[in-house]
Amino acid sequence: MRREIDEIDDAIHDLLMRRAQVVEQIGIAKRPDNQIFRPGREAIILRRLAARHTGAFPIAVVVRIWREMIAAFSRLQGPYAITVYAPEDKRGFWDIARDHYGSVIPMTAVNTPAAAIRTVADGTATVGVVPMPEEDDHEPWWRHLMNEDVKTPRIVARLPFCGRGNARGENHDALAVALIQHEGTGDDRTLLGVELSEDVSRGRLKDALEAAGLTVVNFRSWTGREAGGGPPLHLVEVADYVASTDPRLSAFKSKVGDIVLRATPIGGYAMPLGLNPDVKKV
Q: Which Gene3D superfamilies does the entry mention (predicted)?
């Protein structure tokens, strides 16, 4: 049996080296685009493995192994670095970022979500890891993504993808931002930035969104009063993939009227394995 294990180990190692060769060929073939990672494609790979998995070996470990592989192979194609919101009292974000992006990818901690976003925008980092939006956040990071400039980072993933592991601190998830577009995977959430010219109840917005065919999962709002004024801003999570050209956005705007200054997808994420798919109460 030990000889058989040695043979299996050799076979696994051979396949890893073969995979590296194929990845290097892919890296050459897709230049000059040079998009070295695709979170949607990664999610599809992990879902496929989870669907075919059998036996006693934990699926969470399979995902962890493949996350390490994906990160290492991505780095073969070009520069790859992570910036993580991880102040002294929030080290759990560092742990889930390390688990997701692997132990060989360079990571840097910053003390604010805005700093993580800036490093992505200026090209210092490939990915920025920021906390899930909170209702009581007086300086929400997501408002900085509410424009259509191609140099503005977009939300592309939710962490962790399969269980929290041994991350330190409170049980908080995170979002990843990058200078790429969110890709649909067949089971997604999209985050819409909605700017209004006057106050409107969440109930009215929810009714208009759902009448347009967009199922609302969650709301986060910011009035700007803490910053000396400004129009009401809402971050609306919907249970689907929504592109900027989706006709449902136009239908939503027409139902609410001219008070909608913009309704812009600022990214989204593939639903993680095991995440409760039920729509939350707004």
A: Chorismate mutase (1.20.59.10)
Three-state SS for 185-254 is: CCCEEEEEEEEECCCCCHHHHHHHHHHCCCCEEEEEEECCHHHCCCCCEEEEEECCCCCCCCHHHHHHHH
Q: Which residues pair with 133 in a beta bridge?
A: none
Task: Indicate the angle between helix axes 59-75 and 2-29, nearest 10 degrees.
Answer: 40
pLDDT in tens, 147-179: 888 889 999 999 999 988 877 877 789 999 999
* 77/50 Cα distance (integer angstroms): 26
d(CA 76, CA 245): 34
Residue 238 domain-assigned? yes
240 CB neighbour count, 10 Å cutoff? 16
DSSP H helical ranges for the chain:
2-29, 39-52, 59-75, 92-101, 113-121, 202-211, 247-256
Give the Cα separation of 255 and 278 in Å (integer).
Answer: 26
Half-sphere exposure of 110 (CA within 13 A, CB side): 20
Mean pLDDT of the chain: 89
**Residue 225 falls within a domain, yes or no?**
yes
The reply to whether 281 falls in a domain is no
Q: Read off the tokens for 201.
A: 């109840």
| Domain contains 44 | no
Distance from C-alpha of 10 to C-alpha of 2, rounded to nearest angstrom = 12
Written as one letter, the residue type at 270 is A
Residue 212 sits in a domain whose CATH number is: 3.30.70.260
If one counts the domains in the chain, the total is: 1
Read off the DSSP letter of residue 29: H
Q: pLDDT (tens digit, 9 = 90+) per residue, 41-87?
A: 999 999 999 999 999 999 999 999 999 999 998 888 888 999 999 99
